[in-house]
Amino acid sequence: MKIVLVGYMASGKSTVGRLLARQLGIRFIDLDDYIEEHQKKSIKTIFSEKGEIFFRKLEHQMLNEVLGKEESLVISTGGGTPCYGTNMTIILDEADHSIYLDLSIPNLLDRISKEKENRPLVKNISDKELPEFIGKHLFERRPYYMQAKHILDCNGTDAETVVEKIKELL
Ligand SMILES: Nc1ncnc2c1ncn2[C@@H]1O[C@H](COP(=O)(O)OP(=O)(O)OP(=O)(O)O)[C@@H](O)[C@H]1O
Ligand SMILES: O=C(O)C1=C[C@@H](O)[C@@H](O)[C@H](O)C1
Ligand SMILES: [Mg+2]
Questions:
Q1: Is the ipTM of this complex over 0.90?
Q2: Does the global pTM surpass 0.80?
Q3: What is the pLDDT of residues 23-42, one digit of tens each?
Q4: Residues with CB under 6 A from ligand 1
Q5: Which residues of this UniProt protein bind Mg(2+) (predicted)?
């Protein structure tokens, strides 16, 4: 069984994915961590040294590699993964369950403003400009996330409860 979590930056994909995999007793792969291990560099360094297009090509290649594994997996994608090239089509074809962790702009803003440093796309956006940036960016990305098989409203829901809700969907 393959379960793929998608959603905007800081929607909880990594946190929830790790917990879910532990409870289901299957392997967890965080695509961002997988890319970092493959490149032996942080995402932040990959962006600054090689640029975003290099990262997106690598992300596509690594997504294919991970989805091709012959084992049950929970895969947490990066915030942009479903929104580039054919990635969302591949996810829909290969995953038994794709799940969008849906969070409102104010809740995303609240989380992202506390953790901007390791997120290259927002680290140079001022606090004043951040709400407008997230609103516009989410507007562009949401059509991809919304293609997931399940849409899960995660507002006001702690990570353990999100995991329980996912288990009910499976
Ligand atoms: N359900 C939740 N309720 C409250 N806080 C949460 C919840 N899930 C995750 N968090 C917190 O939100 C922050 C972002 O979570 P996380 O890193 O899992 O997001 P992500 O979707 O993997 O982000 P990215 O796309 O940047 O990898 C972390 O500080 C995490 O502890
Ligand atoms: O939203 C995005 O485009 C990104 C989110 C992170 O998970 C990383 O994949 C990277 O920082 C890009
Ligand atoms: Mg993550």
A1: yes
A2: yes
A3: 999 999 999 999 999 999 99
A4: 7, 9-16, 32, 76, 78-79, 111, 115, 119, 154, 157-159, 162
A5: 14
